[in-house]
Amino acid sequence: MTEQKKIRVTLVKSLIGTVQSHRECVRGLGLRRREHTVEVLDTPANRGMINKVGYLLRVEYL
Questions:
Q1: How is the beta sheet containing 6-11 ordered, strand by strand?
Q2: Are 57 and 12 in contact (CB under 8 A)?
Q3: With the CA atoms of 32, 34, 40 and 46 taken in that order, what torsion angle do they form, in degrees rounded to the nearest 10?
Q4: Cα–Cα distance between 55 and 2 in angstroms, integer?
Q5: What confidence category does residue 1 fall into, taking pLDDT thresholds of 50, 70 and 90?
Q6: In angstroms, how far is CA 54 from the centroid of its own chain?
Q7: Contact at 8 Å (CB) between 38 and 30?
Q8: Beta-carbon count within 10 A of 43 CB
Q9: 3-class SS at 35?
Q10: Distance CA 59, CA 9 (A)
Q11: How far, in Å, CA of 24 to CA of 30, rounded?
Q12: pLDDT digits (tens, 9 = 90+) for 5-36
């Protein structure tokens, strides 16, 4: 089976003062606090969430 590509996402800005839907996207990506890093699969759903809250994140393509 082929390995799917992954994206490393880090939350670099606080969620205080952000829109509720943006906070939900960050939680949907699995991020919990500032400077928390997770690796997510490179899927259209995850790409959409990353694009929506990109101003809060640092993204690395693996």
A1: 37-41, 6-11, 57-61
A2: yes
A3: 90
A4: 32
A5: low
A6: 8
A7: yes
A8: 12
A9: coil
A10: 5
A11: 10
A12: 999 999 999 999 999 999 999 999 999 999 99
Q: Does 2 have pLDDT greater than 70?
A: no
Residue 49 has what pLDDT?
Answer: 97
DSSP secondary structure letter of residue 13 = S
- Residue 3: per-residue pLDDT: 82
For 20-39, give one letter per residue: b (16+ CB within 10 A) or e: eeeeebbeebebeeeeeeee
Answer yes or no: are the C-beta atoms of 25 and 52 closer than 8 Å.
Answer: yes
Domains of the chain: 6-61 (3.30.1390.20)
